[in-house]
Design brief:
mainly alpha, disordered N terminus, single chain, two-stranded antiparallel sheet, 495 residues, 24 helices, 5-stranded parallel beta sheet
């Protein structure tokens, strides 16, 4: 009986790790080797399977570093199947959902609320969650202008009371449901939207995405409009307009590391070379910020970084795998001890700033090079492989090298090996792995690398299901701002 229970725990742990990899990497969009429909069907199956069989673990995954697409899908799935949960599970799910919604971008939440309405999910808990989220918004008037249809849909679904009079909520109600009835609004953005219909000067007072439509209506020149709108642009909006402004008015070093890597790779080679000092400095600053307390704690680190042609991604995820590799390169340099990092690109290039997707994927040859001792004859403490796992020059060499290395040359595991994969394999319902016994984790943003390495050790087979459940307990408690009790940690209460 105990053996069957242990087997069930191991299967559950494997299923949870598989789902975590998918929820981190997959977005339902086209990848280099699979179409959008394949991705969506694969994700549909995984979400249904894990929610039905491991509901508590499914809800607990909201506390992990999953991407926004899958977080929204989990929230929708939990709300749509509330009748399948116990009263205690619903309470825990409600807290997890509220905490996750507070961390999601507002446009994503409003889109989710639209899906909730279309699905006809209108129970009391759902309405309470939506009302609480709307009540916590710092400026609902701003949201009404920038996300008008989303706010209107949510307000209708929860029967939001919009009283008459001059109260802020009353003005929002009039703006959404009785446009043109008030001669003016006290809220500056609402009134700017009213004036922008006939006054060109009011356009610059609006959020950038709203102002673009009015600028086109008034026939404003793009360059003039961008100059006037610059003070109200978000950092990402400024980056998106770099093709017009050439030098965006933005602090590059303050950008998230992976987002900055995407921006760098979008620049022509000549532009990258001309801005080498600025771009390299910004990448290193962002990497130090992402490393935080882990900086310098990983010892000697060697990395194999995939810049083969498949790292170009797809039309929907352009250069995303290569951007993750570039960001990991700079992050690993900070995580390693000073002067103890060595990064090897599959193409053989030595200039990380000028990498581009090109050629086959000779992972096996680069893994051999990376396992060579570094300066002073010391073996690496960690080998990190950042690749989609399609080792094809020759095929399967990387897995064989790692198998022989582990079995014959390093049975004591002096060198920790981990493979992080930025691409979801729809056919395999997981990220593609290099070899049995090599821990593999999905990755979307390089900033999550330290946490993902911790998750990957559970896939290595040297830790049990109880340790995984205890880890999830700690993540849930941290996510909810609680302190996990020793009793909960020992029992793995989330499971």
């Amino acid at each position: 009986m105990r053996t069957s229970e242990n087997s069930a725990d191991l299967v559950a742990a494997e299923d949870v790790l598989l789902f975590a990899n998918a929820a981190i990497t997959a977005t339902g969009q086209r990848e280099f080797r699979s179409g959008a429909l394949d991705q969506q069907l694969s994700l549909d199956f995984l979400h249904t399977y894990v929610r039905v069989n491991y509901r508590r673990l499914y809800a607990a995954s909201l506390a992990l570093d999953i991407n926004d697409h899958n977080a929204a899908r989990i929230v929708l799935g939990l709300l749509a199947t509330a009748g399948e949960a116990s009263a205690e599970e619903r309470r825990t799910e409600g807290r997890l959902i509220a905490a996750r919604l507070a961390r999601l971008p507002p446009q994503r939440v409003y889109r989710l609320f639209g899906e909730v309405r279309r699905a006809g999910i209108n129970n009391r808990r759902t309405r309470a969650i939506m009302r609480d989220w709307l009540a916590a918004r710092p400026d609902l008037g701003h949201d009404a202008v920038k996300y008008r249809s989303g706010v209107k849909t949510a307000a209708r679904h929860v029967h939001l009371r919009c009283p008459q009079g001059a109260e802020p909520l009353a003005e929002v109600g009039a703006f959404l449901f009785r446009p043109g009835k008030l001669p003016r609004y006290e809220h500056p953005l609402l009134d700017a939207w009213r004036r922008a219909h006939y006054e060109q000067g009011a356009v610059a007072e609006l959020p950038f995405t709203v102002a673009e439509g009015f600028a086109a209506r008034h026939g404003m020149k793009r360059e003039v409009f961008l100059k006037r709108a610059a003070p109200r642009m978000t950092r990402l909006e400024r980056l998106r307009t770099h093709a017009v402004t050439q030098r965006p008015d933005v602090d590059l070093a303050a950008m998230p590391l992976t987002r900055l890597a995407l921006y760098v790779l979008a620049l022509p080679f000549e532009r990258r070379a001309a801005l080498r000092t600025e771009l390299t400095g910004a990448l290193r600053t962002a990497a130090r910020r992402a490393a935080g307390k882990h900086a310098g704690s990983w010892g000697r680190v060697h990395a194999v970084l995939d810049d083969s042609f498949s790292s170009s991604g797809s039309g929907q995820k352009r250069r995303r795998p290569l951007a993750v590799a570039l960001a990991c390169h700079h992050l690993l340099e900070v995580l390693a001890a000073p002067g103890a990092y060595r990064g090897l690109w599959t193409s053989g290039r030595g200039d990380a700033l000028l990498v581009r997707p090109w050629g086959p994927t000779p992972l096996g040859m680069r893994v051999l090079d990376a396992l060579e001792p570094g300066p002073g004859g010391a073996e690496p403490d960690r080998l990190v492989i950042v690749s989609d796992g399609w080792d094809n020059a020759p095929a399967g060499l990387a897995g064989e090298v790692l198998r022989v290395w582990r079995a014959q040359l390093d049975p004591g595991r002096r060198t920790a090996v981990v493979h992080v994969n930025p691409v979801y394999d729809a056919d395999g319902f997981d990220v593609r792995r290099l070899a049995v016994g090599v821990p593999t984790a999905g990755i979307r943003d390089a900033e999550d690398l330290p946490a993902l390495v911790e998750i990957a050790r559970f896939a290595e087979g040297r830790t049990g299901a109880a340790e995984l459940h205890a880890y999830l307990d700690r993540r849930v408690a941290l996510f909810l701002g609680e302190k996990a009790t020793e009793n909960e940690t020992e029992k793995g209460a989330v499971a």
